[in-house]
Amino acid sequence: MAHATPQGVKLLNGWKRPGRFDKGLGAQLPEAYRKFWREWKLTTPAAVHYIPKEQEWQRDEVTHAILPVQNIPLPLIDTPESHQGIWGGEAVIKGFQKRQQTKRRVPHFWVPNLRRSVVHSHVLDAYMSVVVTERTLEQIHECHGFDHYLLKNRACDLRSALALKLKREVLQALQKGVPALDDEPDRQQEVLKEYGRYLEPYTPEEIDWYGHTYLEAIRKLQKQLREAEKVKPHKVEFRSKLIEQLRQAGISEAGKLEQTDSQTGSSAEHKDSDIEALTKLESSPSSSWLSKINPFGKKET
Amino acid sequence: MLKSIYVTPLNLLKSASTVQQQVRTTFILKRKYDPPLHKTNEKPRRMRAKHFIYELVEDTLVKKRPNMQVVLKTFVEGVGDKGDVVSMKPHFVYNKLLLPGLAAYNTPENVAKYAKTEAEKSAVKHSSAYAQRTVNMLESIVLAVVMNKDEPWVLEPWHIKASLRKAGFHCREECITLPKERIEGPDLKKENKDFYCTITINKLEQAKLKCRLHHWSTDPSERLPYVLEHWKMESEPLLNVGLPEKSPETTQ
Fold first, then answer.
1. Same domain, yes or no: B226 and B201
2. Which of residues 130-169 of A touch B (CB under 8 A)?
């Protein structure tokens, strides 16, 4: 029976709701993008807002029963603003506070402290003004530079569309040999030597698809598909065929056979002459027909 | 066994093999009530509202940040010389040293790269990191040199030394170079007139100090009227008094 269902043999492992990569355009996204997606969305990020327990088991203080430790991360909210800045893994936390024992719990949002600062990328050779948190700056210092911070950290830890976009640009720049520093070959070599090792885990296709949001990836795919199946209008195709036929029949208005191909320098002029000739051909019968009807028109002799 | 399989894809996803210390500069929370335990390798159980009651463990933003160490690429006024490893507050280091490109992070490669060469060591340009700051301070002020209105005097270095001390600068007499011409008094024509003397710091840096002569009497009735903020006013140079000679070897 399994082969008759839309999911085929896969149904044997249980029904699975089709996700964003199983239907529509999402199904056509390449494996390179899916790899990035897994790194970004399906990986547990580093614990920023809580301290995970290290041990595997713990003893209950009251009952002295031994219980396993299960670290369930606090749910975080990524606001649209977090994707316009680089918050270094921080996010908004929605929850409750119990301020007094006898009072009802109060809803509370814990929001990161943001400030605008400048970051400097050696690879892009650019200073950028971005909204950051204190944690971002500390991580930049820990990694010894903004480029190292972007390249060392996984997408789930960067947690910002802006940072991911910059990471892709840095990777692309490294791939092309740091074009921003073409004027200073010495520095270019130094930068390539320092950051070149980060290119190893990626293939060129993965770099191309790295750091796009889902919508951007779909747009990119659509653009690619559109370019692949670019249709030449029949109008153009048939017209060129017709001209070719006319030429072979030896009609002078269609231009000469060999000259158009051999002489590249004057090809533009020939094209113009072709078009003129064509318009003449097209317009001549209609004008004669109109002149017959129009009583005020000049009579052709 | 299961656990080892579970862990490997995470490691593969890491873009570089680096062990990073976790930094926390934010709110660190913990749950007031532990959520219910769930089966291994299964989704956590549905949580109730009380599992979203959080308690603040620590707000790391209000903690004092430790100093940061960087290697200087060039001489930086008030900080240090080229190749020095300096330890300063992180915001100052980032905004004033790292972003303008005056310093690099303290790594062994950077220390070796920016160490002073022999040629640079021999050609000393600065006696200390702070000398230029003192020069700037001295050149920005107008020093009031208050002399006696009744007794005759000739201007000597110790007069300048005392005036500098009143302005908050302590220096030795050997550091002060007066103009070649004798300045004598009391002479009310010289009241509120300027002349320049040179202060040599650490036998190396030289500051051009602008001085202004004033007369003062011990008898209150003889005193000149008080002028408010004389250093903001326009004044003329002393006649027949040029700039002091530039010879640091002789004057120290």
1. yes
2. 133-135, 137-139, 141-145, 151-154
Q: Cβ contact (<8 Å) for A197 and B16? A: yes
Question: What ipTM was predicted for this assembly?
Answer: 0.74
Same-domain status, B136 and B243: yes
Q: Work out how many domains chain B is built from and give that number.
A: 3
- pLDDT at residue number B104: 95
Assess if residue B238 is contained within a domain: yes
Same domain, B55 and B73: no
User: Minimal Cα–Cα distance from B121 to chain A, Å?
Assistant: 25
Over residues B47-66, the mean pLDDT reads: 91
Please state whether B160 falls in left (phi above 0), alpha (psi between -120 and 50) or beta: alpha
Nearest alpha carbon to residue B133 among B199, B79, B62:
B79
The confidence score (pLDDT) of residue B11 equals: 44
B9 lies in some domain:
no
pLDDT classification of A47: cutoffs 50, 70, 90: very high
The predicted structure's pLDDT at residue A255: 75
Give this prediction's pTM.
0.76
CA–CA dist A271, A260 (Å, integer): 8
What's the maximum distance between 2 C-alpha atoms anywhere in chain B? 101
**Residues of the domain holding B184:** 131-251
Domain end point (choices B15, B44, B63): B63
Is B218 inside a domain boundary? yes
Taking CB atoms and an 8 Å limit, are A141 and B20 in contact across chains? no
Partner residue opposite A51 with nearest CB, options B20, B28, B49? B28
Q: Which amino acid is it at A58? A: Q
Q: From the list B16, B25, B35, which residue is nearest A152 (CB)?
A: B16
B140's tokens: 């920005």
| Closest residue on chain A to B50 (Cα) | A96
